[in-house]
Design a protein that fits this description.
The chain is mainly α. Helix content is 58%, strand content 10%. The chain is built from six helices and three strands, in the order ααβααββαα. The chain has a three-stranded antiparallel beta sheet with strand order 1-3-2. Strand 2 and strand 3 form a beta hairpin. Helix 2 packs across helix 4 and helix 2 packs across helix 5. The two termini are 32 Å apart.
Length: 166
């Protein structure tokens, strides 16, 4: 087990991750706030789904999810289709414009990370991915944790059901 001082330093380092998130946020187009990015990313990764499933994946309240979905739908990035199993529900899916927007966002963030981490080796980037994946799993954030292709850093997926909070 790590020493107390190491955990204190870890708290400082995790707080500094906010600067990384702010830099990533600065490259988002003005019409695409972080909530819309989360919606597009979830639909791009998991495919079409009901709003309730999206709220669960994003681990946010249904009202927050609804606002983010409305924003994305108003811009033509997602389609809301009747659910054949329940006409009161809607199935959400990326539209072609949404796929294009998601591709653009992925290019932007990938470019920024590649630029900022250009002096890192592939192994160092892989270690960071593995350790961050393991950290998420340790906190049981409820979302499926992708297992990185780095054999030394394989992490089991979590299966906890997330709480719906903002």
């Amino acid at each position: 087990m790590a020493e107390h001082a190491q955990y204190e330093e870890l708290v400082r380092q995790l707080s500094a991750v906010g600067a990384v998130k702010r830099d990533l946020g600065r490259i988002l187009p003005s019409d695409c706030p972080a909530g819309s990015v989360a919606v597009l990313t979830a639909l791009g990764r998991h495919g079409e789904m009901r709003m309730s499933k999206l709220a669960e994946l994003l681990d946010v309240d249904m009202s927050v999810t609804s606002r983010n979905v409305a924003h994305a739908a108003a811009r033509g990035w997602i389609d809301r289709l009747p659910d054949p199993a329940d006409r009161r529900s809607r199935i959400l899916r990326l539209s072609p414009a949404g796929e294009d927007r998601l591709d653009d966002l992925t290019r932007r963030t990938t470019h920024l990370l590649a630029e900022r981490l250009s002096d890192w080796t592939d192994d160092e980037v892989g270690q960071l991915i593995g350790l961050m994946t393991r950290l998420r799993a340790s906190f049981g954030d409820g979302r499926p944790v992708p297992v990185p292709p780095y054999p030394a850093l394989v992490v089991a997926e979590t299966t906890r059901t997330p709480a719906h909070s903002q």
